[in-house]
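Every protein is a chain of amino acids, and every chain bends into a shape of its own. Below is the pair of lines this work produces for a single protein:
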Amino acid sequence: MSQAPVMNSVYRKRLLSHRIGIALSVAAMSVGLIVLIWILATLLFKGFGALSLDMFTQTTPAPGSEGGGLINAIVGSLMLVGLATAISTPIGIFAGIYLAEYGEENKLASITRFVTDIMLSAPSIVIGLFVYALYVANVKHFSGYAGTIALALIAVPVVVRTTDNMLRLVPNSLLEAAFALGAPRWKVATLVRLRAVKAGVVTGVLLALARISGETAPLLFTALNNQFFSADMNRPMANLPVVIYQFAMSPYDNWRDLAWGGALLVTFSVLALNILSRTLFSQKIPN
């Protein structure tokens, strides 16, 4: 009976600490949501006003001129991001399979995982400078190929890490059953293990796609920009992130309006990819 007051006081202290922690967490979440809603509301207010048919049919206007659109930047971004995704997806998936299958057996896998972690945290501008020094400086001109290489280098570690983590979630009982049937290791890795988490791997690819869709810094040193429409990947190529960056700082109202419209397109594209990765491709790991 003498311990009841002590227990009550300990319980009250813990309850008070719990309530304070919950209150601080809710307050922090509220601040983040308020800032996010504020940003999205401003983007919607100014971005929707800039949307028009001309934005999707005309090229970027000359300085001081009226009208114009972003069709060259939209097409350029689709080409850059699409080719970078096509390059990074098979490389990232196969590297993730290698890490999951042989990651505990040799030092090369440990080095690969270490380099992947470094690339995940590396600033994108550093990757852009690397591609500039390695490719652009040697060929003596900016190009869409250089921008593709930079974006692919950013996307590869995201796909590698996601694939590696998802494959490690596959239960050993499923793998042991496949081995018991006489399946070789490469078939177990590709036809059993990878198939079991294919939705998670696709999610990683979509997240990598969303990551590189809004990158600006590496493209400033590689693809640069192009005021005219061009589908030649060996020439400077227009793209939405760089156009938004340049137009947003310009003294022309028309350019700033187009920058808001382009920012709205990029934001909703990334938002759609994130929603798609979390809903349509959601999958439970088999037990």
The mean pLDDT is 88. Residues 31 and 37 are 10 Å apart (CA to CA). The radius of gyration is 25 Å.
